[in-house]
Amino acid sequence: GAGVSQSPRYKVAKRGQDVALRCDPISGHVSLFWYQQALGQGPEFLTYFQNEAQLDKSGLPSDRFFAERPEGSVSTLKIQRTQQEDSAVYLCASSLAGDTQYFGPGTRLTVL
Amino acid sequence: DQQVKQNSPSLSVQEGRISILNCDYTNSMFDYFLWYKKYPAEGPTFLISISSIKDKNEDGRFTVFLNKSAKHLSLHIVPSQPGDSAVYFCAAIPSGGYNKLIFGAGTRLAVHP
Fold first, then answer.
1. Are the beta carbons of B99 and A35 separated by less than 8 Å?
2. Could you give the C-alpha distances from B45 to A64, B40, B111, in angstroms and in order?
3. What average pLDDT score do residues B20-39 get?
4. What DSSP designation does A57 have?
5. Does residue B106 contact residue B89 with C-beta atoms inside 8 Å?
6. How far is it, in rounded angstroms, from Cα A63 to Cα B41?
7. Full pLDDT tens readout for chain A, 112 residues
8. What is the per-residue pLDDT for A38?
9. Which A positions 1-40 lie with beta carbon below 8 A of chain B?
10. Angle B98-A41-B46 from CA coordinates, rounded to 5°
11. Which of the listed residues A1, A40, B9, B103 has the most CB atoms within 10 Å of its CB?
């Protein structure tokens, strides 16, 4: 079956621009996670959804970052007024009910 | 402050030999430990896990060992194959909650013929 998909795969933004990153989890997966992976580092937790409820957003680095999952399936991570330090790979993962997380291929964001 | 550490950024091993990847952690309140494998331009893929109440878990060529007193775990791959060449991430799940993963920085494994 289809895995987790993310779009776009690559995004180049000018500093100050707003971006929106999309995640399509595996159908039926209740849990959805967003992670940020800087170059040469491991992924770092950003936020967690259980269905449409955002239960933890403690990892979001600033109030410029916002995530939503309005119908409990597709999720969007939005970054307002992008800065160079936002350049990273943004990974989405889903799991059926808190078990193994399946990751998408990520969106590589480059802020110029 | 890094709670999960992988101190070796890279490892090179000959095909057929054993690969040993190491991971240290600082938080005693981790419930599960996992290893993920990542190829370029792909997301991490789950490889193997171990509960904090066990000291060994084996799955085919992959074995994970957990030493709680030393706060150390290792992944053994025997025999190593060229297709195992990838970045390996150690990750931990804090007790309680919903399985948020805390990752190490990764070790790049190169298996050469």
1. no
2. 29, 12, 18
3. 94
4. -
5. yes
6. 29
7. 589 999 999 999 999 999 999 999 999 999 999 999 999 999 999 999 999 999 999 999 999 999 999 999 999 999 999 999 999 999 999 999 777 899 999 999 999 9
8. 95
9. 4, 31, 33, 35, 40
10. 50
11. B103
User: Do residue B99 and residue A95 have CB atoms under 8 angstroms apart?
Assistant: yes
Q: Which of B43, B44, B98 sits opposite A50 (nearest CB)?
A: B98
Cβ atoms within 10 Å of A55's Cβ, excluding its own: 12
CB A46 within 8 A of CB A35: yes
Q: Following DSSP, what letter does each residue of A66-105 receive, concatenated? A: EEE-TTSS-EEEEESS--GGG-EEEEEEEESSSS--EE--
Residues 6+ apart with CB under 8 A from B15: B79, B80, B81, B82, B111, B112, B113
- Partner residue facing B43 (CB), from A40, A45, A105: A105
CB B32 within 8 Å of CB B95: no
- B101 three-class SS: coil
* DSSP secondary structure of B25-89: E--TTEEEEEEEEE-TTS--EEEEEEETT-SEEEETTEEEEEETTTTEEEEEESS--GGG-EEEE
Question: Which residues in B lie closer than 8 A to residue A23 (C-beta atoms)?
Answer: none
Q: What whole-number distance in Å separates Cα of residue B111 and Cα of residue B99?
A: 31
